[in-house]
Amino acid sequence: MATILLTLGRLPKALDLARGFALAGHRVVVAEPFGRHLAGASRHVARRITVPPPVNGAGPYLDALAEAARREGADLVVPVSEEVLHVAALRPRLPPATRLLAMPPALILAVHHKGAFVEAASAMGLPVPDTAALGSEAAAALAEAGDVVVKPAHSCAGQGVRVIRRGEALPRETSAHIVQRFLPGAEFSTCSLAREGEVLGTTVYRGIRFSGSVAIAFERVDHPAIEAWVTRFARETRWSGFLSFDFREDARGLAHAIECNPRTTSGLHFFRAEDIAPAILDGRKLRHRDERELQQFYSMLTEAQNGMFRRGFFARLRECGARPDVTWNRADPLPFLTMTWTAWPIIRAAMRHRATFGEVAMRDLAWNGAAPEAGSPEAPGNLERQHHLDRGVREAI
Q: Is the dihedral of CA 342, 348, 353, 357 positive or negative?
C-alpha cells in the first residue's frame, strides 16, 4: 500500500483521483488551503491537511506541502489542477523516496504560457493558430487581417479572454497578453495521462452547457486527429503526468491547439476510476467509462435557477436530471450529499464578487506569471518578460 498526497480537494477531479487510488488499496491524504472541501467528505480520504494558499507566497505553500509529505510518509504527490504551476517546484523539498507527478517547473510554466506553447507546438509541425505578443507589429498585422482573440499569457477558466473584430483597436494592457487568430469552428478540450512520452489515455470532449466560460455538462467525442496531435506533443516533450489542451477547428475543419493546460481537466471524469492508480503507478492503459455525457448537477441546477424568470426555465430544470453527475457514487455518497456545505467558501465568494464558481475556485491557486524569488530552487526565470520559446521547452524537445 502506498500513501498518495493530493494537493487539492475542492474539485470533482480530486474526488476521482482519491477514489481511484483508494479502490486500488492505497492511502489517500489531501492537502488543501480550504478547511473543508469536496474530496474531504469522501470515505476514501484518510486525512485532510490545511495548507496556506500559494497566492500568499510560494515558499510557505511549498514548505507546508513538503512537511505534509514527510509527516505522512507520502510515496507520491499528485497535483490536481491549476496548483501544479506551483507544485512543480516542490521536488527539491521532498524526501528522496517521494515521487512527484509533474514535469520540471521550467517546462510546466513554458507550456502554460500561451505564446511560448504556440511556438513549441509550431516547431513540432503541429497545427496552432497564428499568435503574437500584444503590442508587437505582428499582433497589429493579425488584427488588421481578421478577427482575433486577446487573452492573458497566463490565465485559467477563460478569464480575460476577448474577441476583437477585424479593424477594431487592440486593447492596451500592462501585463503580458497574446493576440491569436480567431478560429470560427467547433471547440474541443482534452485530458491525457502520459508516462515518459507515451500516452496512456486521452479523452476528447466538448462542453454542452456552461457557467460563464466553464463547461458544467460535457460529452465525450471521437476525434482521431486531435488524439494524434496530443500523442505527438507528448512524445516530443517526453511528458509524464497529466496534460490537457483546448482546440478549435478552422473553417476547413482542421483542429488547432489554442492553449495547453499542464494538468487535469473535466475529461478526467470519463476514465474508469479503477484504472487511475494502475495507470499512474504502473503505466497501464486507461479505459473510458460507458457514459458519453456527464454533468455537474449542482452547477446545472444553479444555472437553471438563475434563469427562473426566462423562457425555457422548466426545460433547463428537467435537464438537470438528464445525465450522470460526476461526483455521485452509491458507495461513497457524502461528497454529493454535502457539496453545498463543503463548497460554501467558494459559493460565498462567488456571490460576493458576482463571479462564476469556476473563476472563484481558482483565485487562490492561479499563477500570475511572476517568477519565484531569485536563487530559490524552483526559480525557472520570469516568463512574463518573454514572448518567445522558453528554454525549458527547447531543452525538452
A: positive
Whose grid coordinates read 507520491? 76
Tell me the three state secondary structure of residue 171. Answer: coil
Alpha helix ranges (H) inside the chain: 12-23, 58-72, 84-87, 105-112, 114-123, 137-145, 224-237, 273-282, 297-306, 313-319, 334-337, 339-342, 344-353, 357-361, 391-396
d(CA 359, CA 366): 10
List, in sequence order, every beta strand (DSSP E) within 119-224.
131-133, 148-152, 162-164, 177-181, 187-195, 198-211, 214-220
CB 303 within 8 A of CB 209: yes
Closest among 361, 377, 381, 373 to 109, alpha carbons compared: 381
pLDDT score, position 11: 95
Looking at residue 344, its pLDDT comes to 87
Residue with C-alpha cell 469556476? 358
pTM reported for the whole predicted model:
0.90
Distance CA 359, CA 68 (A): 27
Looking at residue 185, its pLDDT comes to 96
For residue 137 the three cell numbers come to: 507589429
**Which cell is 331 given?**
458507495
The answer to whether 287 touches 271, Cβ cutoff 8 Å, is: yes
Q: What element of type H or E holds 49?
A: strand 47-50
Segment holding 99, helix H or strand E: strand 99-100
